[in-house]
TrEMBL record, chain A:
<feature type="transmembrane region" description="Helical">
    <location>
        <begin position="212"/>
        <end position="230"/>
    </location>
</feature>
<feature type="transmembrane region" description="Helical">
    <location>
        <begin position="182"/>
        <end position="206"/>
    </location>
</feature>
<keyword id="KW-0592">Phosphate transport</keyword>
<feature type="transmembrane region" description="Helical">
    <location>
        <begin position="151"/>
        <end position="170"/>
    </location>
</feature>
<keyword id="KW-0812">Transmembrane</keyword>
<feature type="transmembrane region" description="Helical">
    <location>
        <begin position="31"/>
        <end position="51"/>
    </location>
</feature>
<dbReference type="GO" id="GO:0005315">
    <property type="term" value="F:phosphate transmembrane transporter activity"/>
</dbReference>
<keyword id="KW-0472">Membrane</keyword>
<dbReference type="GO" id="GO:0035435">
    <property type="term" value="P:phosphate ion transmembrane transport"/>
</dbReference>
UniProtKB/TrEMBL annotation, chain B:
<dbReference type="InterPro" id="IPR005670">
    <property type="entry name" value="PstB-like"/>
</dbReference>
<dbReference type="GO" id="GO:0005524">
    <property type="term" value="F:ATP binding"/>
</dbReference>
<dbReference type="Pfam" id="PF00005">
    <property type="entry name" value="ABC_tran"/>
</dbReference>
<dbReference type="GO" id="GO:0016020">
    <property type="term" value="C:membrane"/>
</dbReference>
<dbReference type="InterPro" id="IPR027417">
    <property type="entry name" value="P-loop_NTPase"/>
</dbReference>
<keyword id="KW-1278">Translocase</keyword>
<keyword id="KW-0813">Transport</keyword>
<feature type="domain" description="ABC transporter">
    <location>
        <begin position="5"/>
        <end position="248"/>
    </location>
</feature>
<keyword id="KW-0547">Nucleotide-binding</keyword>
Amino acid sequence: MSEVAMDQPSGAVPGARRSSSSLHQPRLPRWAPAAIAAAALAVGVGIGAGAGLSSRIQWGLLAAVLYVAGTFALATRVEGVRQAKDRLATSLVWVCFLLAVVPLVSLIWETVSRGSSVLDGGFLSHSMGGVLTIQPGGGVYHAIIGTLEQVGIATAIAAPIGLLTAIYLVEYGRGRLAKAVTFFVDVMTGIPSIVAGLFVLSFWILMLDNGYSGFAGSMALAILMMPVVVRSTEEMLKLVPNELREASLALGVPKWRTILKVVLPTAIGGIATGVMLSVARIAGESAPIVLLVFGSQLINNNPFEGAQSSLPYYIYEQWAAGNDASYDRAWAAALVLIAFVMILNLVARGIARWKAPKAGR
Amino acid sequence: MAKRIDVSGLTAYYGSHKAIEDISMTVEPRSVTAFIGPSGCGKSTFLRTLNRMHEVTPGGRVEGKVLLDDENLYGAGVDPVSVRRTVGMVFQRPNPFPTMSIYENVAAGIRLNGGRVRKAELDTIVEKSLKGANLWKEVKDRLNKPGAGLSGGQQQRLCIARAIAVEPQVLLMDEPCSALDPISTLAIEDLIGELKERFTIVIVTHNMQQAARVSDRTAFFNLAGVGQPGKLVEIDDTERIFSNPSVQATEDYISGRFG
């Protein structure tokens, strides 16, 4: 009996003798992965607490390793090597997914729990004018105005230029010029935000002798935004099937009208998403703002003259002030910024869904 | 309405590659002419030179003359856009515009050309074109639904309706049935029979029975070898091509003894 069991690695499940001709193989029950995960978590916590490991992260990593190893070992024993490899890959994917989600969830949790204490109507509708940093109170209104204006102007500059560049590259660009444009767009993608800020500082403020203003910041943000818009729009335009262009041309529609009426409407959902994502990317930039907009405690509605604030700058400033009241304001402003970006993303998704080519009957 | 096409000494290139060489033929008005031949022999390329769609492909260029009645399509000062309004085209794969409804798809040729047409007039044109494409009965209650929601055969008839809505003189069809089932194919073949009353029709097909069924004249294309340009072997009445062709290669191809 024992000799038979030795010959058959799957002999662990009674009665499930495997012969080479059988299509039936022993399988772990459906609840097995969940059970193994629960057991791994329990053992991980047990070992962590028993050995006195202070960090919860270590407990979690221990549980993750146990889960992957346990799944593989059990599956090898019951289901055979091929199935075990499949389970190994599945469990690794799950662990990586959780590892990716944990920081995200903890970031949102932390921001919401700390930021919501001072976030109210007054916070959103007041500036820091006349409020000492050590005092509670004050608000983020001037920073919201600054961010909206700076990002708005940057978008108004970068989105049309980026869009037209992408149309040139996909629809018209041939030969050297197109290659050169693509190359420079690639290079621009890699520009660090502080370098864009320094460029505008030396050109606009030092050479042309303009003062600090929201507009100066917008120009730096536009430089950062443009390559992202070009890239995403380019990809979306490339996705439009060539057959549609040919269908339109064959109807005797001129090329520019084909692009305007057929190509762009087909890709508009993706293009809008790309623009919104690039807006979200520049909304969180603080380096050019520090250099070019200077920062302010007061409401300045004019982006073309005088210092302004912005949300990322406000967060930095309040955090640097270093007391409880300013920490609260920094967290609340961070929450406002995350909400702003989140709303932009939702709007982009809404547009993409609304404008997506319809296939319904 | 329909016009005669006279091609003489036409050679087309993709970059430096010569795709078809020295083709001359006459296509009679109000008739169906079928192009047959093995893959890669340049049938589609030749078809696309007839409405200047060949030059849309990067590197595509053409030498020779294509006379539409007496006007050379490749003459100096000829606008390819107006050529394409005169010579319509239906493609191999149905390609309705995905952002547009059935109605808008049919009206696309007129609307995209910026024509100021009154709504009632446009309604008439759309209905007439859809009736002309034998699609009206199937879609008249859902004209505002997306065109991409139709079945493959319906989509292809929608594309035909779209092509005939701009009232071309000539209709080019590049394997219009190759992506369709036999029933949809039959519907399109019947349609071709009706359309030839009004248009000059040129159809590329891989289906010899189809060529025999729908066409009045058939042209056989062949190429000497891989990388060689395609050439017109012969063009004659369809009956004669399929019963008693004058060139041996044609008979070999039609009877399946090819290669």
